[in-house]
Amino acid sequence: MFAISRRRLVLGSAGLLAAGALAQNLLGRAALAAPDAAPTPGNFLAVSRALTGMPLPDPQLAQRLYQALLPRFPQLNPLLDALATLLQRHDVQDGAALQRQLAQHAAPLTHLYHALISGWYLGVIGDADRPECIAFENIVSYQLVRDSLTPPSYCPGEPNFWVRPPQKESNHV
C-alpha cells in the first residue's frame, strides 16, 4: 500500500491547482491570439437578407454558414454575385417561379441556393448522407416565430432560461 502524508497531499493538490490555472491562462491567451476568420462579404449578406427577409440576419450564423460553404463551393463569391443578380430580377416570394429560373442556370447556382436556404432555415448544410449542423437556436425558422414558440428541446424553458431567477408568485393556493 502506498502511504502519503497530509502535507504531501496538500502540497501536491496545490501544485496541480497552480499548474491547471497556469495552463488555462496560457491556453486562453493562445485562443485570443488566434487570427479571426475572414469577414463575411457584403454579397453574401445581401443574398442572405433577400432569402431570409430579415434586415440583419444573425452575424455569427452568417459567419459560420459562409465558412462552411467555402470548401463546398470553390467559386463561392462569383456564384453569390450571380445569385444576387437573379434575385434582383425575380421576386423571391414566388418560390415556384424562382425555382424555374434556377433550373435554367448551372447546377452549382441551384445547389448554392438550396444550401443557403437549408443553412439559414434549418441550420444544416450538406448532402443527406453527410449533413453538417452549423446552428440550432438562432436559425431563421425560430427567429420568425420566437414570440410564440421556442426551439424544441428537452429543456422546459426557452434557451438560457436558467440565467434569470424564477418569478415569485404572489398568490399561493
TrEMBL record:
Pfam families to which the protein is assigned, alphabetical: FAD-SLDH
Transmembrane region(s): none
Record keyword Signal present: yes
Keywords: Signal
Signal peptide span: 1-23
Superkingdom of origin: Bacteria
InterPro entries, A to Z: FAD-SLDH_ssu, TAT_signal
Iron listed as a keyword: no
Protein name (Swiss-Prot/TrEMBL): Membrane bound FAD containing D-sorbitol dehydrogenase
